[in-house]
Amino acid sequence: MISVIRSGMSAALSDLDVTSNNIANAATTGYKKREASFTDVYADTVAISVGKRVGSGVRTPEIRFNGSQGNLKQTGSVLDLAIEGQGMFALRDENNPGELIYTRDGAFAIDLDGEISTTEGYKVLSSNGNPITVPMRAAAAIDANGVEALADLPLTGVSVRSDGAVEATYGGNRIFVVAKVGLAGFADANRLTAIGNNLFRQNARSGAGVVGEAITDGRGKIHSGALEMSNIDMTSELTKLIRAQQTFSGTSRLLQSETEMVRKFL
After folding, report:
1. How many whole angstroms separate alpha carbon 97 and alpha carbon 79?
2. Would the CA dihedral through 59, 64, 68, 69 be positive or negative?
3. 224 strand-pairing partners
4. pTM score, two decimals?
5. Predicted confidence (pLDDT) per residue in 4-26, tens digit
6. Helix crossing, 234-264 with 2-24: angle to 10°?
7. Are 258 and 1 in contact (CB under 8 A)?
8. Whether the Cβ atoms of residue 104 and residue 32 lie closer than 8 Å to each other
9. Annotated domain spans of the chain
């Protein structure tokens, strides 16, 4: 009996940890709430087959994240990108280039190398799977008094369309599409492995990430000048927190009573 009660306490602690983490990240950009799942444990499989289900505790087989859409917040910064749909931004870690990582946090900027990257330095990948470079200067053909010549023009603006196309403007009126922001799709994105800092890795259960263009194959579209907020419902999470606390408190008292009963028979 004590082992059954202890499994209940462990499950309640897991629920507390997950819910507390959700509440702490309610204001984190692109955060997806975690959900702990619980299953019954049965000691006697023979008894189950004849309809006598003798429970021997509970376990937490996995903690999944909920990929439902968060609200979009307008920021006005061109390279703040939000996804409306199921896709995820694909990133490359230069320290581990053989394995991609993924995020819904689209707070990007152009780094010193002219590449679009995250604040942690991860390179944002295009729909072709390559880092996106925005040249600071470009050679363009101009027409001066009927004579066409090449001119070295400075970068004067950047914009991102809903299909992910990154448009760079040079000299005020010369616009070039330098790349398209890639989005990754998964067989089951809710089973991705969280590695911290709002980043994820693929695994066997999530399936491999397939990077392609926005809007295609259900990857969703991109909103420039906005960020996706977390999908946390504080009222729901606080209710779950109170319930988990009560569960832990109740099982603690039950364990204490069971321990005292065992001592009397020793």
Report:
1. 23
2. positive
3. 81
4. 0.80
5. 766 677 778 888 888 999 999 99
6. 160
7. yes
8. yes
9. 2-67+232-264, 72-228
